[in-house]
Amino acid sequence: MTAPSPHDVLRGRQPDVDGIPPDHDGTEHGWPERPFRERYDEALGDERLARNLTAFQQSWRGNRGDAIESIDFGDLRDRLRASKTATIADLETHIATFQAAAERAGARVHHAASAADANRIIRELAELHDVDLIAKSKSMVSEEIELNHDFREHGIDVVETDLGEWIVQVMGQRPSHLVMPAIHLGRQQIGAVLTERLGRDVSREDIAEQVRVVRDEIREVFFTAGMGITGANALVAETGTVMMCTNEGNGRLTSSVPRIHVVIAGIEKLVPSFEDAVMQLRLLGRSATAQTLTSYTTFITGPTPGHEMHIVLVDNGRRQMAALPEFREALNCIRCGACSNVCPPYREVGGHVFGHIYTGAIGLVVTPFLNGLDAVAGPQSLCVSCNACATVCPVGIPLPRQILDVRKMVVRKKGLHPAKRVAFGVLSRPAAFALASRVGAKAQLPLTRGGTFVRTQLPVLNRQTRWRSLPAVARRPLRDRIRVGETQPPLRPVVPNGAAGRTVALFPGCITDRMYPEQGQAVNDVLRHLGVRVVLPVGLNCCGLPANNSGDEPNARRMARQTIRALERTRADHIVSGSASCVAMIAQDYVHLFREDPVWLPRAERLAARVTDFTSFLATVAELPAGSLAVPVPGSIVPDGRVTYHDSCQGLNALGLAAEPRRLLADVMGLRIDELAESTLCCGFGGSFSFEYPDVAERLMNRKLDDAESTGARVIVTDNQGCIMHLRGGADAGRRPLRVVHIAELLAERMRLLGAARSVE
Amino acid sequence: MSDTETMLEEFGRRAAALGVRVDRVPDSAAAASTVQGTATDARVTRLVVSGEVRRRAPGLIQSIEASLDVETATDPAAVRDAPLALTLAHTAYAETGSVLLAEPDLPDRAVGMLSGTLVVVLPTGGLRAGLEDAVAGLRAIASQPGGGYATLMTGPSRTADIERVLTVGVQGPGKVVVVFVDHLL
Ligand code: SF4
Ligand code: SF4
Predict the structure, then answer these.
(1) What is the pLDDT of residue A472?
(2) Is the Cβ pair B172, A248 closer than 8 Å?
(3) pTM of the model as a whole
């Protein structure tokens, strides 16, 4: 059998090798894409995929942590963000400066309004120069415009020269990650495909051999291609310079050896000066691959002597994004891929499901503009709103919020799921919600037998509930335990603290009120034992978070208005909630919900300034002294004094709480904290997410519970009722020896004890 | 320690972490020995050099020619997969262990792109502290009439595209040696 040429390899059909899931519909180019649910189910069935991605995310986190030690990440991020934002605000000026300088240096600049335009411009150049083979280095814009497919249809072969890109091209797939295109594949699959395609035996184990084989296949292309296409990491306006970061060296060859060099770049890649480019470099390598710099950072100004250089500036929806305040900041993206590297659902299903052509969080945001809303309707629903991506993005893009804005667009176009429509309709009407809760509390009795869980399986909800017990509705909600609207007098402070004498309005949140009133009671009691006057305001309902996270903007606004009305009436010094999620919603999301409402925006802003979460209140207002609650408690929730702490996504990622709860547990209460292996990872609840995507939710939950068990501690402490509901349900259904409690419950048992001792004295 | 010593120490640490060998030598004769030693290790007698290093360090080339067959790069095909090559860096940066290669001409560029082992020489005085120090050089290179082509090279060519396993030496040099020469002639 003769070895095929690079042309033959690329013209080959979809491999039919055991264990390799086909990734397209059988057409030669592989697109259009198969339905989202089909891809989702297939990814879930591929155990190796989640294993690979888990290992990747875990090692990336550690390496990135080491890589950013030598810089002030927050400061650099803020400066780069400011620079990119200012550039986008004056984009046309920078484009004009860039074009003039690039053309002075001998390059030609082309403007492509659409994907079709970009393909046509480059194709005409190829035809003009009789080019039938093109070498291409990694360029996400070329993926966006489906250049390879377009050129193939016109009889021009484009060969990817980046190793990972070449592999996915040969397999008829798309990259599944912005930076690591073949991260979804394993060596066995790659070895099998190479053996089949090249007609000779290639190791399925030896990665060095696989790299050598692919490298040799690609090498010839640089010398035979008539055109080289590269992307750009930045376009430096002052000199018309193209900046390109690569590791393999293929980008330098692609931009140098073929006689025609075409650069294809989105218009958002403009930076004014080399100072801005260097600032970007300091963050790009570290965020992408945890390198201080990639092996080659190349600056190209004008063509190689005797060659031609063309720069195609692609709009394709970017100017439309720039005109929308909600989405403008997504143009600051430097395509580092970090947002995928911390994303919990991405880890479980990979980039062919979590994204479209652009994958990960940023893919969910830009796809509607670049490739249409339909392409992202399914993938966006997989975002669990955990906010992890926002914490690592080197340009501080508010990705979770933008994803919710995309979700709202999808809901506006396609409508809300009927079950959610009913649920939010009830939730947003306080009387109906109250009635439903009371009826539910009675109706559930045959299922709960008076306990705290609904354990009976409903066949219709089997997939959603077989792995977790659902919480019972409390027979007496918090509002029946504390007199609503009546200020409770303070108790004598059990420890010296800075909150004594203040008044706090308590916002329990609807889960606490209806499911876990004992946790609301605990918050209430802790505050009172600090000498605080506490009031449960009149008119409280759900804060609107479930509706907001489901893209139901009208009901989210309706509940937000109810909450603002109820809380702004109180004259308390502070509004405190034991639910980190509710606080993030009220203090952060309301302002966005009412961004165009001149009446409600100022009211939302005023309220945001008054709301604080329970842990922060204790840390910044009460300032409990170290050791002040380190007392033995008979019959304590934590008999052995050991706990592990689960950082809720909203507590950690939205409110920035990490040290505060640990100080309360360890310093104030004297407990030993056995840290979770991946303490920053979401537990998989995400509200209705866990009903829509029970398989992903179950996996994330079990990972968390496994990690918790292996700490040796038997008590998981956290600050969010959603996580408590999810983890308790999982621990109960899995008969795990774990208790899940709110931090207030631990504080309360100590304060009650001290309070009782005081009253005896 | 002098500023240069401090920068050399940092450059050496950063570059070594990437698998780059770094030498500092007093003069071109000593630099020639380093190149010869590298050739011996690689078991080769042929050395491809860039036109730039031949022009700017004729003394070094002369010393090397005593023991190796030195060939000046003329076009990429001739340099393709040359086992050993030598080029001159514009500057180097301690912060990242990078060398800045300014290579407007294709044959010179090919030396750094297509060889298996690349030796990069530069005057010790060309070592700078941080990347912000690269800005002026990059601007100057880009502002030349007809533009320019410059690369900050940070370690050997590498990939981790398959299962994140690092493999060095893909399309660029798999081995890099940087030689700082106090008096480069
Ligand atoms: S918010 Fe969480 S789930 Fe959503 S994209 Fe970001 S990291 Fe992924
Ligand atoms: S959105 Fe941020 S984290 Fe994601 S690829 Fe872009 S720059 Fe990187």
Answers:
(1) 85
(2) yes
(3) 0.93
Q: What is the pLDDT of residues B18-63, one digit of tens each?
A: 999 999 999 999 999 999 999 999 999 999 999 999 999 999 999 9
Spatial separation of the C-alpha atoms in residues A618 and A747, rounded to whole Å: 11
Task: Show the domain range for A139.
Answer: 6-37+71-314
CA A353 to chain CA centroid, nearest Å? 14
- What pLDDT, in 10s, does the model give residues B107-116? 999 999 999 9
Task: State residue A457's pLDDT score.
Answer: 64
Say if residues A312 and A269 touch (Cβ distance below 8 Å): no
Q: How many CB atoms lie within 10 A of CB B81?
A: 8
Whether residues B149 and A55 touch (CB distance < 8 A) is answered with no
Contact A311, A106 (CB under 8 A): no
Asked if A654 and A531 count as a contact pair (C-beta separation under 8 A), the reply is no
Q: Is residue A449 part of a domain?
A: no
Q: Which atom of ligand 1 is nearest to the CA of A686?
A: 3
Chain A contact set for B98 (CB, 8 A): 293, 297
Tokens of A326: 């909600």
CA-proximal residue: ligand 1, atom 4 (nearest):
A383
Cα–Cα distance, B118 to B85 (Å, whole number): 5
The pLDDT assigned to A471 comes to 85
Structure tokens at A664: 């309360």
**Contact A410/A374 with Cβ under 8 angstroms?**
no
Could you tell me the strand order of the sheet in which A503-506 lies?
A533-535, A503-506, A574-577, A611-613
Domain span at residue B113 reads 3-183
Name the domain count of chain B. Answer: 1
Q: Which chain B positions have a beta carbon within 8 Å of A301's beta carbon?
A: 141-143, 147-149
Among A265, A285, A314, where does a domain finish?
Answer: A314
Q: Does B82 touch chain A (CB under 8 A)?
A: no
Compute the distance from residue A140 Cα to the ligand 1 centre, in Å.
21
pLDDT of residue A757: 83
In eight-state DSSP terms, residue A576 is E
Which residue carries 């397999």 as its tokens? A171
Here the tokens at position A464 are: 């959603």
| CB–CB contact A298 B148 (8 Å) | no
Answer whether residue A358 is part of any domain: no
Domain-embedded: residue A735:
yes
CATH number for the domain spanning B63: value is 3.40.50.10420
Residue A333 lies in a domain: no
Between chains, do A187 and B163 touch, taking CB under 8 Å as contact?
Answer: yes
User: How many interface pairs between A and B have CB atoms less than 8 angstroms apart?
Assistant: 178
Residue nearest to atom 8 of ligand 1 (CA): A343
Tokens of A626: 């170290």
A92 backbone dihedrals φ, ψ, rounded to 5°: -65, -35
For residue A22, the model assigns a pLDDT of 29
Q: Whose CA is nearest to atom 6 of ligand 1?
A: A389
Residue A594: what residue type?
F
d(Cα A241, Cα A606) in Å, to the nearest integer? 47
What DSSP designation does B90 have?
S
Burial class from Cβ neighbours inside 10 Å (0-12, 13-18, 19+) for residue A659 reads: exposed
What are the per-10-residue average pLDDT scores of chain A (761 residues)? 40 31 31 82 93 94 95 97 98 98 97 97 97 97 95 94 96 93 94 95 97 96 98 98 98 98 98 98 96 97 97 97 96 98 97 95 96 94 96 98 97 93 89 80 72 69 77 90 94 96 97 95 98 96 96 97 96 97 97 97 98 97 97 95 97 96 98 95 91 94 97 97 94 95 98 85 59
> Which residues, judged by CB distance below 6 Å to any ligand atom, belong to the binding site of ligand 1?
A 342-345, 361, 383-389, 399-400, 403
The minimum-distance atom of ligand 2 relative to the CA of A337 is: 5
CATH of the domain at A118: 3.40.50.10420
Number of domains in chain A: 2
DSSP state of A146: T
Q: How close is the Cα of A549 to the center of ligand 1, in Å? A: 12
